[in-house]
Amino acid sequence: MAIDLAYSGETADLIKRTREFTRDVVLPIEDEFGGNITEAGGDELRVRMQDAAKAAGVFAPHAPVEFGGHGLNMSDRAPVFEEAGYSLFGPVALNIAAPDEGNVHMLAHIANPEQREQYLAPLARGEVRSAFAMTEPSPGAGSDPSALNTRAVRADGGWRINGRKFFITGADGAGFFIIMARTSGEPGQRGGATMFLAPADTPGIRVGRHIDTLDRSMIGGHCEVFFEDLLVPDSAVLGEVDRGFEYAQVRLGPARMTHVMRWLGAARRGHDVAVDYVAKREGFGSKLGDLGMIQKMVADNEIDIAATRALLVRACWELDRGEHASNSTSIAKTYAAEAIFRIVDRSVQMCGGMGVSGDLPLARLSREVRPFRVYDGPSEVHRWAIAKRVVGAAKRAQADAR
Amino acid sequence: MAIDLAYSGETADLIKRTREFTRDVVLPIEDEFGGNITEAGGDELRVRMQDAAKAAGVFAPHAPVEFGGHGLNMSDRAPVFEEAGYSLFGPVALNIAAPDEGNVHMLAHIANPEQREQYLAPLARGEVRSAFAMTEPSPGAGSDPSALNTRAVRADGGWRINGRKFFITGADGAGFFIIMARTSGEPGQRGGATMFLAPADTPGIRVGRHIDTLDRSMIGGHCEVFFEDLLVPDSAVLGEVDRGFEYAQVRLGPARMTHVMRWLGAARRGHDVAVDYVAKREGFGSKLGDLGMIQKMVADNEIDIAATRALLVRACWELDRGEHASNSTSIAKTYAAEAIFRIVDRSVQMCGGMGVSGDLPLARLSREVRPFRVYDGPSEVHRWAIAKRVVGAAKRAQADAR
Amino acid sequence: MAIDLAYSGETADLIKRTREFTRDVVLPIEDEFGGNITEAGGDELRVRMQDAAKAAGVFAPHAPVEFGGHGLNMSDRAPVFEEAGYSLFGPVALNIAAPDEGNVHMLAHIANPEQREQYLAPLARGEVRSAFAMTEPSPGAGSDPSALNTRAVRADGGWRINGRKFFITGADGAGFFIIMARTSGEPGQRGGATMFLAPADTPGIRVGRHIDTLDRSMIGGHCEVFFEDLLVPDSAVLGEVDRGFEYAQVRLGPARMTHVMRWLGAARRGHDVAVDYVAKREGFGSKLGDLGMIQKMVADNEIDIAATRALLVRACWELDRGEHASNSTSIAKTYAAEAIFRIVDRSVQMCGGMGVSGDLPLARLSREVRPFRVYDGPSEVHRWAIAKRVVGAAKRAQADAR
Amino acid sequence: MAIDLAYSGETADLIKRTREFTRDVVLPIEDEFGGNITEAGGDELRVRMQDAAKAAGVFAPHAPVEFGGHGLNMSDRAPVFEEAGYSLFGPVALNIAAPDEGNVHMLAHIANPEQREQYLAPLARGEVRSAFAMTEPSPGAGSDPSALNTRAVRADGGWRINGRKFFITGADGAGFFIIMARTSGEPGQRGGATMFLAPADTPGIRVGRHIDTLDRSMIGGHCEVFFEDLLVPDSAVLGEVDRGFEYAQVRLGPARMTHVMRWLGAARRGHDVAVDYVAKREGFGSKLGDLGMIQKMVADNEIDIAATRALLVRACWELDRGEHASNSTSIAKTYAAEAIFRIVDRSVQMCGGMGVSGDLPLARLSREVRPFRVYDGPSEVHRWAIAKRVVGAAKRAQADAR
C-alpha cells in the first residue's frame, strides 16, 4: 500500500477521449451561441450532443454500467468531468450536468428496484431530465435546510404535498421531480423531511418563471416551482419517511465535488484562452506574457488550478472509501468556488478590453462561475461548518482535560 | 488656511437634489428595464430624462455656466456625480455620462470659439452626443497609446484620415467624433498625434458593430469605427497639430476621476441593497446582518467606500489646483476600480441566490463594474506608471549621491 | 468655503523641520541599536533626544502652547507625527509616543486646574512619563471594555482600588498612572467606570513583569500592573465619578489616529528602504525595480500609503470639528493597521534575504507594526462596530417604513 | 491501479510515534526557551534530543536504512516531517533539519562510496552537522544562481577555491561544507558549476558573523562564509565537474518540499494554539470561537492546511516517480510559504494581545515562518518560473500552428 495518484489505463483513455470530444464536437457549438444553451437549441441540442457522445463512447461516465454508463467512482470522475467542463455544454453532452448527475448518483444509492426502472434508467440513458426540488424562497429552506417549509401530509393511500420551491435547476422540461417535503417536525428543526418522486405531469405540479441569473448554460433554467395539493402514492417515497435530510447528504457531498470538477474545466478553458492571448499580444515592448505582472497572474492561475485539483483528489478518495467526507468536501468546495472565480477573473484581466467583450469567451465564463460561490452552500455556510467542527472538538478536549 | 472638507451650501444643496432626483425619477426606470439602456429607450429615454433633470435644476453640473451648466470644479463634482451614479442611468440623465462628460471637459479647455459654438454648446446642452475615437484593435493603440496606428496625412486644404478604431463608446448615434490620429512619427513612438473634430455624417466615417461587453448601460454602445479616406478641413484640428497626446492627458486625468465618482455611486447602491437585505433576512437563528461573517463584509464595504471617496477628494483637489495629478489620479483610479468591484461582489455574496439573480439589481451591477478595472487604463498599466515614478526617483537620488 | 487640503505655512515648516530632525538626529540612533529602545538607553536616551528636539523647535507639537507645545489640532498633527514616526524613536524624541501623547490630549480636555499643574504640565514638558491603566487579563477588560474588573470602593476620604492590569504600556518608569476602575455596576455592564490619577510611588501600586511582545520600541514596555489596596484621595478622580467610559472615548478616537500617524511614518521608512534597494540591486538581467512583480509591490505600497493618509485626513477633520468620529476613526484605524502591515511586509519581500535580516531595518519594522492590528482595538472589533451601525440603521429604516 | 492516499501501517505507526515524541519530549524544551535554539543549548541540546529520538525509534526517517535511517520516500516523509515540525526543535531532534536533511538526500544520490563513508554516514547518524554553501552576497548568486561568483581553479592535484558566501545555514559548528563554485563559464551564464566537499577545519575556510534574521530555530545560524585560497583534492569533487547546477536541482526540489513539511507542522501548532484559545476565551457574550469573524479565520486556516498538504502529496508523488517535478514543487512551495504565513498570522490575530506576546508561542512562530517566502527561492522567482513554462508552451503551440 502506498500513495498513488495515477489513473488506470482505461480511465486515462476515457479522459483523453472526453477531452477530444469536448474540444472537437461541443466547444464549437458553445462558442457559436455564446454559451446560451437555450438559444443554442435547448433539449433538442442536448439529444443531438448526447447521441454524439454515445457514438464517441464518452456518454454517462458516472452512471451504473447496467444503465449504459461507465460506472466510474468519484476519483475517476474528477478528471473526466473536468474535461467535459472545458466546454459549458460538455456536461450536458455527457449527461453529467447538474442536477441530473447528482440525481443519478442518489437514485443509484437509494431507489428501490421499481423506482430504478421507472426513474433512474431513463435518466441515466438521457431519455428524460430531472429536477431536485429542495430550496425554497425566504423564509424557507435556503442555505439553512432546516427551515424547510413545504409539507407533505398523509392522504388517502399516499401524501398530499403543498409548498413553493425556488431556484429549481432544470425544472422547465424535466421529466420528473425529486421533492423534499416536511413530514414531521417544524421549520427550524433539523429532522422530519422525506423525499418523493413524481412525474412532471402529475396534477398539482406547476413550473413558474425562470429566475434570471448570471449563468446561462443550465438547460431548463433555475425556476420557481409550485406544489398545489399534489397527491403522490406511498410508492413515491424515496427510501424511507423522515430520512430526507440524511439522503440529501448522500447527494450533497458528491454533488459538490462534481460541481467543482465541471467548473474547474471551465476555469481552465478561461486560463488557456488568456495564456494564448498574452503569448501572442504585443505591448510595452514585448509580449504581454513576458511582463511580470501578467506572469504573476498566469502563475497564480496555475497554483489555483493545482490546489483545486489536489483538494478534489483528497475529497473524492474519502468519498470512494465510503466516508461522509463532510469536512473535506466543504474545504474543497469553498476553496474551489473562490479559486475558480479568481482564475476566470484574472483571465479576463489579462485580456483587457477583449476580456470583457464577447469576442472571447471570458466575459461569459466570468458570469457562469460567479454563482458557484453561492450554489451548493455559500462559502460562508461552509466556513461556518468547518469552524464549528474544529472549535467544537477543542471544547470537548478542554472538557475532557478538566 | 487650514484643511477643510466641507462643501459649500450651494453644493450641498445640489448634492441633495441630485440624490432625490436620481432615486425618485431615474432609479425606477433603470430597475424596470434591468439596467439595459437600449431596451429602456436609448436616446429617446435620454432626452426625456434630461428634460426632467433640467426641470429639477440638476442638469449638467459640470458644464460651463455659459452653456447652461453649474460650472462645478472637480472637487464639487465628486459628490454630485456619485449621487447621479447611484442609478446606472443617472449620468445619462444629467448629461455627465462617458464619453460626453469628458469631451465637454476637454473642449472647454482646448476648443477655439468656433468649435465651442459648433460642438461644445450643443453637447453641453444635451442636443447631441459625441464619441472619442482613440483606442484601436491590436496591434494599435490600446493600453499603450504610443502604438497609435490611425493616420492623418495632409490633403488639399485639410487632412485625409484612415484607420480603424475599437471600443468607441457611444459611437452609434453620436453627433460628432473627436478623432485621434497620427500626424507624425511612427507607431511605438510617443509623439505625433493630433485630434480632429468631425460631424458623424461626414463621408468616410463608418460605425461598425457593437462590441458585446459585460456592461449594458452606455448609450450608443462600444463600437468599431472605420475612417476610410475621411477628409476634414484644417479647421477640424482641435488645438494644435502633433499635440494630441498632451491634450489626451487633459482629458484623461479628470475623466478617470469622474468614472470613479459615477461607479462609486453604483457600488454604494449595491451595498445599500445588500445591507437592506441582510437587515431583514432571517437565517441561522438571527438576522443575517447580525452574523459575524456578514458583518465583516458590511464593514469591508464601508471601508472601501470611505477610502475610495478619500482618495478622490485628494486627486480632485490637486486637479482643481491645476496640477497634472497623474500620480494621485492613477492611485485613486486603481484603488477605486478594485474596491468598487469588491463592494459589489461582496454585496452579491451577502444576498446569496438573490444576489446572482435578476430579482435584485446586484447581478447587473456586478457586470457593469467589472470592466472598470480595464477601462481608462488597466490596473496593471497604472501600477506600472506609479512604480516607474517612484523607482525612477530613487535611481536619480542614488546617482546624485554618487 | 471649499475643499482645501493645504497646510498653513507654519505647519508646513514644522513638517519640514520634523522630517530633518528625525532623519538627521534620531534615525541614526535607532539604526545603531536595532530599534531596541531599552538597549539604546531607555529614559536616559529619551531625555537626551527630547533636549535635542527642544533645541530644534520640534518638541511637543500636540501639547497646549501654555505648556511649551505647538498646540496643533489633529489635522496638523497628522503630517508632523508621520514625519516623527519615520524613526521608531522619533515619537519619544518629540514626546508624542503612546501613551503619553494620548494622556496629554485627555488631560488637556478633562483635568481640573490642580491636576493640570500636577500631572499635565510635567508630562507635556517631558519631565515624567505616564501610563494608562485600562486593559486587564482575561476575563477582564480586553477588547471588550465593559468586562472591567478592577474595582474602586469608597474609603475614608477617598477610594480603595484593587485589581490587576495587563499590557500597560510604559508602566515601568512611569511617573504617574491614570487608572480605570469600576465604581458601580458589574463586569459585563457598560456603565460605572471612573478614572483616577496616582503618582507611581503611591503605596499599593506594583509594576510586574514586562510582557515580551513583538515590538521593542516602547519605553517602559508593556507591563503587568497590580493595584493592591491602593488608596487615593477624592482629588484623584479625573473628571467625574462613573464617567470613565465616556472619557476613554475622548482619548480613544484621537489616540487611534495618532497611532496611525506614527506607524504610517514607520511604514514609509520601510517602503523607502525597499525602493532604494530594488532601484540599485541587479537581478535577472535588470534592476529588480524594473521587474513587473516588484513594480506591483511598489505601486501597492504607494496606494496603501495614499489611502491611509487620505482616511486620516478625513477622520482628523471630523475630530477637529468636535465630532465623535467613531465611525471614521474606526475605518481609518482598521484600514491603516492592515495597510501598514502590508506595506512593511511587501518591503521585506522586495529585499529578499536582506529583508528578513538585521542588515536592513525591515525585519524589525515588520515586528513593530504587526501588533497594530491588535492594539487599540483589534480589526475584528472595529469591523463589528462599523457593521453594527450600518445594519442597525437599516433595521430602523425598515421599521420606520412599516 | 487506482488513486490511493492511505499510508502503510508501518508509516502510519511512525507518524503516530513521531507525533507523540515531538509533543512529549521536544515541545516542552522549545517552549521553555522561547524557541531560541542557541539559548536552549545548541549542539549539546541537539545530541541530547537525537539520542532520545533514537531511543524512541523515530530518528532519521529519511536516511538510507544502511545508515540507520528509516529510508522513507518523499511521500512518506511528508506526514512524518510535518509531525516533527510541530515543534521548531523537532526537525533537529530527528536529524531532518535544513540543511542536513537535504544534504543527506543529495549525498545519497550522488556521493561515491568513499564520500558516502566519510561524509554521508556520520551526517546521517547525527555525528556531525553540515552546510551547503551556495548563496552569495550581491551581485553573486542569490535568487538567480547563474550569478555564481565563487571560483575554483585547477591547482596542483586539485582545486583552489576563492569566494564569499552568505546566508549559509548551519555553518557555525558544521563538520563539513558542500561548496558550490564556478569551474567554467562566467557569472550570468547558467553552466559551469561544480560541487566540492571539504571538512570544516580545512585551512582556507572561515566562518564569519551570524546574520541576524527573524528566525531563531536553526542550529548554527545563517552565516557569512569565506573561502580564501581553499585547496581541495580531486577527490573532493562531488559527482562530476561542471554538473553542479544539475545536482543542485536534485537537492532543491525535495529540499523545498521538506521545508514545506516542517513549516506546515509549525503552522499547525500555531493554529492549534489559537483554536484552543478561542474555544476557551469569553468575549462579547460568547466564546470567541463562536463568533463569525473568528470562525472565518479558523476555517481559512483549515483550508490553507488542507491545500498545502494536498499540493505536497502531489509533488512528493511525482518526485518518488523520478520526475523532476519542477513545476509541482514550485507550485507547492509558493502556495505553502504564503499559506503557512497566513495561518500563523491569523492565529496571532485570533489571540489578540496574547498573540503578539511571548505568553503564547504565536509571536515567535510568526517570526519563524516569515522568511519561508524568501528562503528556497522567493515566491516571485517561483511564479516567474511557473509562468515562463506556461507562456513558453503557448508560444510554441502557436508557432506549430502557423
TrEMBL record, chains A, B, C, D:
<dbReference type="InterPro" id="IPR013786">
    <property type="entry name" value="AcylCoA_DH/ox_N"/>
</dbReference>
<dbReference type="InterPro" id="IPR036250">
    <property type="entry name" value="AcylCo_DH-like_C"/>
</dbReference>
<protein>
    <submittedName>
        <fullName>Acyl-CoA dehydrogenase</fullName>
    </submittedName>
</protein>
<feature type="domain" description="Acyl-CoA dehydrogenase/oxidase C-terminal">
    <location>
        <begin position="242"/>
        <end position="390"/>
    </location>
</feature>
<dbReference type="InterPro" id="IPR046373">
    <property type="entry name" value="Acyl-CoA_Oxase/DH_mid-dom_sf"/>
</dbReference>
<keyword id="KW-0285">Flavoprotein</keyword>
<dbReference type="InterPro" id="IPR006089">
    <property type="entry name" value="Acyl-CoA_DH_CS"/>
</dbReference>
<dbReference type="Pfam" id="PF00441">
    <property type="entry name" value="Acyl-CoA_dh_1"/>
</dbReference>
<keyword id="KW-0560">Oxidoreductase</keyword>
<dbReference type="GO" id="GO:0033539">
    <property type="term" value="P:fatty acid beta-oxidation using acyl-CoA dehydrogenase"/>
</dbReference>
<comment type="similarity">
    <text>Belongs to the acyl-CoA dehydrogenase family.</text>
</comment>
<dbReference type="InterPro" id="IPR009100">
    <property type="entry name" value="AcylCoA_DH/oxidase_NM_dom_sf"/>
</dbReference>
<keyword id="KW-0274">FAD</keyword>
<feature type="domain" description="Acyl-CoA oxidase/dehydrogenase middle">
    <location>
        <begin position="131"/>
        <end position="229"/>
    </location>
</feature>
<dbReference type="InterPro" id="IPR050741">
    <property type="entry name" value="Acyl-CoA_dehydrogenase"/>
</dbReference>
<dbReference type="InterPro" id="IPR037069">
    <property type="entry name" value="AcylCoA_DH/ox_N_sf"/>
</dbReference>
<dbReference type="GO" id="GO:0050660">
    <property type="term" value="F:flavin adenine dinucleotide binding"/>
</dbReference>
<feature type="domain" description="Acyl-CoA dehydrogenase/oxidase N-terminal">
    <location>
        <begin position="11"/>
        <end position="127"/>
    </location>
</feature>
<comment type="subunit">
    <text>Homodimer.</text>
</comment>
<dbReference type="InterPro" id="IPR006091">
    <property type="entry name" value="Acyl-CoA_Oxase/DH_mid-dom"/>
</dbReference>
<dbReference type="GO" id="GO:0003995">
    <property type="term" value="F:acyl-CoA dehydrogenase activity"/>
</dbReference>
<dbReference type="Pfam" id="PF02770">
    <property type="entry name" value="Acyl-CoA_dh_M"/>
</dbReference>
<dbReference type="InterPro" id="IPR009075">
    <property type="entry name" value="AcylCo_DH/oxidase_C"/>
</dbReference>
<dbReference type="GO" id="GO:0005737">
    <property type="term" value="C:cytoplasm"/>
</dbReference>
<dbReference type="Pfam" id="PF02771">
    <property type="entry name" value="Acyl-CoA_dh_N"/>
</dbReference>
